[in-house]
Prior knowledge:
Blueprint: H1 7-27, E1 36-39, E2 45-48, E3 54-57, E4 71-74, E5 78-83, E6 88-93, E7 96-101, E8 105-110, E9 117-123, E10 125-129, E11 135-139, E12 143-145, E13 148-150
Parallel strand pairs: 4-6
Antiparallel strand pairs: 1-5, 2-3, 2-4, 5-8, 6-7, 7-10, 8-9, 9-12, 10-11, 12-13
Amino acid sequence: MGVMMDRKTHAVVKCIFLSVLLFAFLMTPTLLVADIFLGNVTGTLAITTPDGQVLTVEAGEPLPPIPSGSSIELITGTAEVSATDTDIVYVLVERSTVTVEGGTKSFIWVDLRTGDTCLEVIGGRVSVLQTNGLTETVDEQEVYCRATLKRDTLLEPAEATGRQNDASEGLVSGY
Length: 175
């Protein structure tokens, strides 16, 4: 024996069903779009997605969508990396892995003189898994280079090249 409903009750039940279905669709994590942002890229990036696909992106090339859980390695140049509250991206700084998540924004660069890769936290806080297995926290306005944390040291991008003293030392470069 079926349940009898008038048209008004049927419309309300149908509206509730569609609302629940829409809510379930929007809350399914596999359907959400990742919000990993890269900006001001001036060099070459290697992006490894969670499924193991490796993408190389040169400065000026369009950036592909970057899924949450990807790893980014800066080969040359500079880049800004940020993640929303629900996303996570791993930035390789030399042999350390920096976890960028929870609304954090960071600036990374390769020092042209030493070849070291460094990361400055612009907003939020990151955690660094070092090669010795220890984890270190780097707060906003701190710089992490290799296995050395330079507290309260902010570098201007021009200074981040490691070549700021070349002119005063009589060295000339063509870059």
